Amino acid sequence: MFDETVLEKLDYPRILEQLAEATGFAPAREAARALRPTADPLAIAARQGRLAEAIRLRQRGGAQPRMPALDPRPWLERLRLGAALTGEELFALLAFLRASGRLGAWLLEEAAQEPRLREEAGRLPRLPALEERLARSVAPDGSWLDSASPALAALRRRRRELEAAVRERLEALARSLAARQVLQEPVVTVRGGRFCLPVRADQRTAVPGIVHDRSASGATFFVEPAAVVELGNRIRLLERQEEEECERLARELSALARRQLDLLVAGVEAATRLELLLAAAELADRQRAALPLLREGPPAAVFQGARHPLLGERAVPVDLEIGRDFDLLVVTGPNTGGKTVALKTLGLLVLMAQSGLAVPAEAGSELAPFPSVWVDVGDEQSIEQSLSTFSSHMGQIVRIFRGMEPGGLVLLDEIGAGTDPREGAALAAAILERLLERGARVVATTHLGELKTLATRLPRAENASVAFDEQTLQPTYRIELGLPGRSHALLVAERLGLPAEVVARARSLLPEEEQEVGALVRRLEEERAELAVQRRRLARLLERQQQLAREAEERLERVREREARLRAEARAEALAVVAEAKREADRRLRELRRLAEEAASRPGSLREAEEARQELNRLRARVEALTAAQPGPEERPARPPRPGERVWIDSLRAEGELLEVQGREAVVRVGFLRVNVPYGQLRPLGAAGGDGARPGGAGGGRAGRPETEAPVARGGVTELGRLKAESVRPEIDVRGLTADEALERVGKYLDDALLAGLERVRIIHGKGTGALRQAVGEYLRSHPLVAEQSLAPPEEGGSGVTVVALRTAPGPRG
Predict the structure, then answer these.
(1) How far apart are CA 727 and CA 729, in angstroms?
(2) In the prediction, which pLDDT does 179 show?
(3) CA distance 278 to 80
């Protein structure tokens, strides 16, 4: 639980108000104002995951449907209590159904890659029948449409007919009376729902009928003539029947909505969460904010380029950190230099990050959650309570000591101020030492020079200062780690024209220790400036070196390609020569056979045949020499394997298929598994699925493998499987995870279990509501490695454990 006083001091409610203003949906505005930070890493991660999806969705651009500015909760409560809704409330229900339908359809289409948003979109109500009935029954102003029911349409049609008849009669009567000057004016008016004529007071008896009203001056009586009284009565009766029909319709439509009450309540909750996420994404966009990386381990915060979110464009980015390399940061420097703003920025960004919100800082900022945040900022002296500035600060620090827990973040502004500087410094040093002993992460600002040396004496402590431009005599509002701040009072006084002898005398009156500290700080600042110059120079050299390395690699690649092309051309030329020699040998062989056939028929033929045979032998020797001179596959120059080829993996002593190359890493499929190996350990065997030769031999069979090679097991590598078998347990526990997290772990675990040679494994998902068990079961039913699944016996966990039998994987291809 985070103290509300701390939230107020760090302006956290103002951030929530900005969040609330980003949505018009009343439940989401209320949820925004109720948002509080948490110390639970899992809860923070879940909030960040949902917001990350909303931010990605917003970055894609396009119009986003949003919920209207209404609050469905009052009329949902009236439905729950059994009341009939008014026309206005029923139209508000229609507006909610229409807006949630648009939002859900948009998310299902646009957020295809955002599972959390799609899951929430699935909870939005889809009630087309109810929506259609409301649309033809209620108008935007809450009145009832004629199409609401046939009875209502008939009543209104009959009433309009009677009203027309009454008007027709009265208009005829008015024309006849106008000539006798009985009426103030010849018009038909309505008083109390009855049609009347405006009769002059002195002519009241000239128009028999019922007086329903008279003018303020008393000069006019509004009389319903007796001739239309009966028609007026029939109109009033129809109006009453119409009212009763509208009341009946309200009860009927309310009953229809009440049947869907659970869906409507769940839909309002889902719409609230979605609106809050879309509002948070909008706020992150306005603040140019990013989600910090969530880290495990001791509490720590590292914000690069942090900006106070309430300062807008005036905010100066600063680098802030605590808890990673040091647990105490003492910040010194002049007034109005930005110490307090930096302190409040750190605290506010921690609260925002632990609320799951994006923070106005650079991407790559980090957070390991703090269990609590405590702050003493500002002067809360009170005349009524007789509290001085010092007493006010001490009261806050006492409160911090009482409530703080190990790992809490403590922010102290101007610690030790408001009393004698020496006593204040001693007390401040003791407070900081004690806070460190209790495991706090502390950032303290101060003007006290004695505290500058404290960071050099305490473990895991560091100095920092607010930078000051000595040329303009203005603070730069940047935080410089590693350097205590210097007082610039004498410099400012000198630049403003104070006599030099006065400034010199003031310097001589400074304690010798303070003069030494000032000189040391100046030397450190000069050394830091020189180091900054050297860093920039080294960065330029490194960039140049990397560029030269890239150019050399490109040149080497071009040389390799040229060498490979020349070798290919030479081989093609040699093969052409060999082919021609073979053709010549075949021709000579045919000639030799012809001579042998003629040997018996004429003298001298045997000598010619012998000469031809000797020439053929010489030709064969030449062909064999040319053939032997051609580089075989094992002699070809090594080339990098390409995706899609079969490769030999030296470290695993196995073959696989190269899928992709990621820098110096390669992704290779070995059996069912995808493994990452160094790219340099791969040697090409030939195209994937072909019969390319393995290193060490010319064939595609086992004879081509090195003799010391371990055989490849079915579905994986024996040596890798042995290593996996030593580390993979026969069960995995996914209790406490979300369905998405659990399924991701189960999928990886099944791969490892198969590689380790396990035949049966147990998945512990717990009983709970059964949702996680159902998700795991559906996932296993479609998994290719699962032969069968069943719940464990009662004595081994029952419905809280699923037992899985794994399939035997097929052997490698090729």
Answers:
(1) 6
(2) 74
(3) 29
